[in-house]
Amino acid sequence: MRWFPTLLLVFSVSPALARNSKQTLPQTIPADKFQENKIPRIGFDLYYRTTGNGHPVLILSGGPGDDCDYMVPVALEAARFGRAILLEQRGTGRSIPPVLDNSTVNLAIYLEDMEALRVQLKVERWTLVGHSAGGLLAMYYAAAHPDRVEDLVLLDSAPIASEFLGPLGANILDRLSPEERERLAALEKSSAPSAEAEMAQINAMALFFDRQIGTKVAATMGNSWHAEVGRLLGNEISAPGYDLRARLKDFDRPVLVLNGRQDPMDPLMAYETSAAFKNSTLRFINRAGHMPWFEQPKQFADAIDDFLK
User: Fold this and answer.
1) Does residue 67 contact residue 93 with C-beta atoms inside 8 Å?
2) What distance in Å separates the CA atoms of residue 7 and residue 265, rounded to the nearest whole number?
3) Which of 128, 51, 59, 118 is nearest to 83 (CA)?
4) In whole numbers, what is the pLDDT of the chain averaged over residues?
5) Strand, coil or helix: what is 214?
6) Which uninterrupted H or E stretch holds 218?
7) DSSP one-letter code for 225
8) More confident residue, 194 or 307
9) I want to staple 164 with a disulfide (CB 3.0 to 4.6 A). Which of 59, 159, 178, 254 is the partner?
């Protein structure tokens, strides 16, 4: 647990293994249900996929630096009520700038990407659905462009202020066996090329209530994290002392804060995030961790449906 964004990853790999080539979809993803599009940015194209019709719903994956494929079930559910837009964020999937550094991967330019997409789609207001670090990115966008947001859905999101992140590392360890903790401590001291990848795999198991499901999801997703993007953006958006409460205190559009009750991003973090908004609904999904749509798909769909419709 060396730095905050690593704990938000869906499944992370070491920098040496992080995939920066054109992404391929896991076999379970119905690629035929999505239309693929792109918009030009400086030196590269920003890719996105859409499905459904009607009110636009932008889907933001986490990490930072995770490919968006694991969010396809969320996009398909959102598409029942509008046009779901699954963004391959800068530095992930096929949206790879020629250089990855602070000039090409930073919060301001991510918000510019989202605005460029909104303008291209001729959208006045849209719904933002953000998971984990993607939820934090959605809050940054709402703080910068409140008049462009119809409503927010924060799925197991990083909290609205850094002071609530304190229990995260301990919550991860609490879900590991003594043997896993010992192995993790040994890997922390190791310089082996495979050490960081093994650490991430151990930590990932703590993100799920049901470890069997976690193992299956991990096998389906494979290497889905872009390490350098995670470090560059993660160190900025989750810098010590970050606090969006003052910037969002007047945001009065509807907000759904939806959490797995057994997520290491625990109920206190979700409560404090929800409490910071004027018009917020807080819901928990029992027997679910960081990605409840994999563990409790029916409960998850019901909660999303109730809000979006």
Assistant:
1) yes
2) 9
3) 51
4) 89
5) helix
6) helix 211-221
7) B
8) 307
9) 159
- The answer to whether 21 and 252 are in contact (CB under 8 A) is no
The separation between the first and the last C-alpha atoms of the chain, rounded to the nearest angstrom, is 39
The string of pLDDT tens digits covering residues 133-149 is 999 999 999 999 999 99
What pLDDT does 87 receive? 98
Q: Binning pLDDT at 50, 70 and 90, where does residue 2 land?
A: very low
Q: Is 160 left (phi over 0), alpha (psi -120 to 50) or beta?
A: alpha
Strands 280-285 and 83-87: unpaired
Give the Å distances, CA to CA, from 157 to 42, 85, 98, 117.
30, 19, 30, 23
What are residue 246's phi and psi, to 5 degrees?
Answer: -65, -35
Question: Sheet of 35-41: strands edge to edge?
Answer: 35-41, 44-51, 83-87, 56-60, 126-131, 149-155, 255-260, 280-285
Q: CA 309 to CA 301: how far, in whole Å?
A: 12
Question: In the 8-state DSSP scheme, what is residue 202?
Answer: H
Q: How far apart are CA 123 and CA 110, in angstroms?
A: 18
CB 265 within 8 A of CB 259: yes
Q: How confident is the model at residue 42 (pLDDT cuts 50, 70, 90)?
A: very high
Cα distance between residue 132 and residue 71, in whole Å: 11
Domains, in order of start, for the chain: 4-308 (3.40.50.1820)
Q: Which residues contact 100 (CB under 8 A, 6 or more apart)?
A: 91, 228, 229, 232
